[in-house]
Inverse folding.
């Protein structure tokens, strides 16, 4: 039964995503123009298609996708693209209308929406929104990339074998990285396996790799945090004797500074364990400029600070 529901979820997820991707392959050129929203999505396309496509990424290092609005330059890129790939599940909350509108005229593919329903987490603020940070669990993200690979093979049939082969290589690499992360997190003493960040971007990471996760803001940076949230976090840190909190490259550290000050006022010193890449990757030419590099950096930073 479990297995059947897996398949059903997969079929529903895939048919949903395909319905957003009207076939326009006759009009797609030999070296298609693809636009990706986030770096993590672009990394998947780059690994599947290499230089067979002209790839542009809208959101660079340090950009918060929850708040990002398409500029006029972005609108031109989207209008000229053959295919657009975004993360989905409302990560690009301020771009969703534009993406849906363009989706009526060309393939617009939400990578994370290929991921099976039973792997999705929802916000616990009573609104039940799907947590969009699915790239944090490699096993889930891999399912999304698999769906993307299948759709790209249909849209670009003369590159299908190339894409299929590249997917296998990418998948093998990601599985290796996932295993490395599991081992590394497992090396932190159990009582110290708590990851505190500004916003709730690491829930899937926590579930996949066995670390308790707490964020001051909700799953979107659009939501505000209050004094009560800071005070609850301070009490939690002191009661659990937690050594470090982590800032995020795409989010202001102001909220966590309030927590650090709050701890200090109660005579408890907590340090910043480092900067994590949550919703955006690092500079292109650096080790954190790839999806696997970003996850490796995050893991190493967490382990170094908490071990
Ligand atoms: Zn986020």
């Amino acid at each position: 039964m479990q297995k059947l529901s897996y398949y059903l979820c997969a079929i529903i997820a895939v048919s949903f995503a395909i319905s957003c991707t009207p076939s326009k392959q006759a009009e797609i050129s030999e070296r298609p123009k693809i636009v990706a929203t986030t770096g993590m999505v672009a990394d998947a396309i780059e690994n599947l298609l290499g230089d067979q496509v002209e790839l542009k990424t809208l959101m660079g290092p340090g950009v918060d996708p929850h708040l990002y609005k398409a500029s006029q330059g972005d609108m031109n890129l989207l209008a000229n693209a053959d295919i657009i790939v975004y993360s989905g599940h409302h990560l690009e909350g301020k771009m969703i209308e534009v993406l849906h509108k363009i989706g009526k005229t060309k393939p617009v593919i939400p990578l994370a929406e290929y991921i099976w329903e039973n792997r999705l987490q929802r916000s616990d603020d009573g609104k039940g929104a799907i947590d969009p940070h699915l790239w944090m669990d490699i096993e889930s993200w891999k399912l999304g990339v698999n769906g993307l690979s299948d759709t790209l093979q249909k849209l670009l049939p003369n590159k299908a074998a190339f894409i299929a082969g590249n997917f296998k290589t990418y998948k093998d690499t990601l599985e290796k990285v996932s295993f490395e992360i599991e081992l590394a997190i497992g090396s932190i003493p159990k009582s110290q396996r708590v990851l505190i960040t500004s916003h709730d971007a690491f829930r899937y990471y926590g579930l996949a790799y066995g670390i308790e996760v707490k964020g001051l803001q909700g799953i979107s940076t659009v939501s505000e945090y209050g004094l009560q949230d800071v005070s609850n976090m301070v009490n939690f840190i002191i009661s659990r004797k937690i050594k470090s909190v982590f800032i995020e490259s795409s989010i202001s550290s102001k909220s966590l500074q309030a927590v650090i000050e709050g701890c200090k006022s109660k005579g408890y010193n907590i340090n910043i364990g480092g900067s994590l890449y949550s919703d955006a990757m690092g500079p292109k030419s650096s080790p954190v400029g790839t999806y696997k590099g970003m996850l490796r950096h995050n893991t190493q930073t967490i382990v170094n600070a908490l071990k």
User: Anything to note?
Assistant: The chain has two domains: 2-159, 182-306. Confidence is low (pLDDT under 50) at residues 1-16, 18-26.
